[in-house]
Design brief:
3 domains; 301 residues; 12 helices; single chain; elongated; Cobalt-precorrin-4 Transmethylase, domain 1; alpha/beta; 19% strand
Length: 301
């Protein structure tokens, strides 16, 4: 194998494989979110074969490249240098070169500035080719046990509590499972805000260290998850929170709402139970409160 071939090769199972030449285009390459074995063969070939490799943090990407024997040199592209690095990458495309873009982990453009580069490439008439793979959003959603037919990725919530609650108010009626990224340091505060704004009885899941050795997925209501993390030590690792969609009142059968009211009333006073049910169903609290009193009267009779 020549020196040129070695620079364009990658290792799989101890065997060196020469990467095929890539057509000039911007390649969006998904990389593992934790477990390096989750890389795809197509991603390895793209990383080894690209003329230019742009990444969020060259040190993080170097670990992946070394694991698979890729001698590619990477250059930084992140939110702090996008204004300078972006035009240089577009210029490389104009010269007929292939450019691969990766983030630190997962699929590029999800909570990172890569969309600007994609927009610039498309406006300039260059082809953009996705190389799919690992995604923390989808990994958490599929393991959460929550509805996946419709979901909204909402990224990171604001750091300040007031702004965070305002954003949650905007999202609470969205008829889809909500998916958030969060910092371990803010997890307890975020879950508390979610329980208050979205309703403590709303089903949710917290995924931590997904695909890694200490992977953990906790499920329950927002109230129980909030209480559990409020008294626990600050968790380590990357966090993904999934929250079930609200139960639409017009889609709910009366008997379903009755069961919900009685279940909530077992855990809290009638007035609060009605308020929680109103959060979850969109129905009026007063109507639900009167219905709960009727149900309790029937049960006593």
């Amino acid at each position: 194998m020549s020196e040129a071939d070695t620079k364009r090769s990658y290792m799989v199972g101890g065997t060196a494989i020469i990467a095929r030449p890539l057509e000039p285009a911007l390649y969006l390459v998904a990389t593992p979110i934790g477990n390096l074995a989750d890389i795809t063969l197509r991603a390895l070939e793209t990383l080894a074969g690209a003329d230019v490799l742009a990444c969020e943090d060259t040190r993080v990407t170097r670990v992946l490249l070394d694991r698979y024997g890729i001698r590619q040199r990477s250059i930084p592209y992140h939110e702090h240098n996008a204004a300078e690095a972006g035009p240089r990458l577009i210029a490389a495309l104009a010269e007929g070169r292939s450019v691969a873009l990766v983030s630190d982990a997962g699929t590029p453009l999800v909570s990172d500035p890569g969309y600007r580069l994609v927009a610039q490439a498309l406006v300039a008439g260059f082809r953009v080719i996705p190389i799919p793979g690992a995604s923390a959003v989808l990994a958490a959603l599929t393991a959460s046990g929550l509805p996946s037919d419709a979901f909204l990725f909402a990224g990171f919530l604001p750091v300040k509590d007031g702004q965070r609650r305002t954003r949650l108010e905007e999202l609470k009626a969205v008829p889809a499972t909500l998916v958030f990224f969060e910092s371990p340091r803010r997890l307890a505060d975020t879950l508390a805000a979610m329980a208050d704004v979205l309703g403590g009885s709303r089903a949710a899941a917290v995924g931590r260290e997904l695909t890694k050795t200490f992977e953990e997925i906790r499920t329950g209501t927002l109230a129980t998850l909030s209480a559990g993390y409020a008294t626990a030590e600050t968790p380590k690792g990357e966090i993904v929170i999934c929250v079930a969609p609200p139960l639409a009142a017009e889609e709910s059968r009366p008997e379903d709402i009755d069961r919900l009211l009685l279940s909530l009333a077992d855990e809290m006073p009638a007035s609060k139970a009605a308020a929680e049910a109103a959060h979850m169903t969109g129905a009026r609290k007063g109507d639900l409160y009167r219905r709960l009193l009727e149900l309790k009267g029937t049960a006593r009779g």
